[in-house]
Amino acid sequence: MSTTISVDQLPNRLIRYNEQDYLFFSGTAYLGIPQHPVMQQQLVDAIQQYGTVFGSSRNGNLRLTIYEEAEAQLAAMVGTVDNQPQAALTLSSGMLAGQVVVQWLQAQSMHLLYAPGTHPALWNGPATSLPGTSFDDWRQHIAEQVRALNPAQPVAILTNSLDAVRSELYDFAWVNDLPDDRLITLVVDDSHGLGLLNGGRGIWSQLPQRDNVRLLVTGSLAKAMGLPGGVVLGDADRLQQLRKTPFFGACSPIPPAYLAAFVRARSLYETQYGRLRQLVDKAAEVLLPTGQFRQAAGYPVFYTGQDALYPFLLQHNMLIYSFAYPTPSDRANTRIVISAFHELADIQEIGRKVGQYGNTG
Fold first, then answer.
1. Whose CA is closest to 187, among 245, 103, 85, 267?
2. Measured between alpha carbons, how far is 166 from 347 in angstroms, rounded to an integer?
3. Model pLDDT, residue 100
4. I need a labelling partner for 356 at 20 to 30 A (CA). Which of 38, 129, 181, 339 fits?
5. What distances in angstroms separate CA 198 from CA 16, 119, 224, 344, one per listed residue?
6. Pairing of strands 20-25, 14-17
């Protein structure tokens, strides 16, 4: 079992624990946004204008324009597909973003089909049963599963955009094989892809476009984007339907100051993305030749089945990711996470220690 470490400061490239400094290679702040002084100052300035929270419904009779401004920027970040502009709708968390969609799907009496490993944000209950096969096996049979259903009943397929735990990208070519005689909604949780995949645009541009397949992309903004909230991306008409649901109208919105900081820090995200790419390339150069890791090309997560690497690195003042997820009964998964707050020297140092670990085996 991994040792739990408690600290009283925001993790950065270094954390202070028991009067010692540890290099930190965990978490999901891939772009290093929460730790960046520019973003922190933007937030301080925005709080002067918007306060700490907006204690109202987004559907109330007083509305703050920063929500629509930030949502337009998020949609523009994702881009357009076939010249059809996409829209964005923000919520107070990625979990809530997923649940507002799932609740709406159930209200439409849709038959829900889940991919293996789908994040709990998209579950339709606390104990949703997921396929026990690999994603590759599942995608080879999903079209057949859809064809076996009643064509009159609308279908929703729910999946993650990638396996962020084991650093594996998903191929969505299977969408082209889905039957075209029924309405299908494809819901993709892109929490670990927004700000990272496809030049930072996320998964949307990789999803095949079909006339009978409507797309909804959900996600947490608390990963690469560094914002305490969630988002749903899709066509404007569908998002307007979501906005009218009690699940959306009754929830508190994301604090507006964070969205104002996001709008004002647009160039920072581009800078941090470029910095992260360089660091990930260096990490791949020093980690992959050891034969201990699996990494999706360009992705800042290096997964290993060597769980003993965690205590070894901890002894050398390095803290990597290693704990049971998503429930305490699951096996701990071990990975090295690279962030834009790292320095090249940090990458070289952990490469040396991983090499020493390999030599001890």
1. 103
2. 20
3. 97
4. 339
5. 35, 21, 13, 23
6. antiparallel
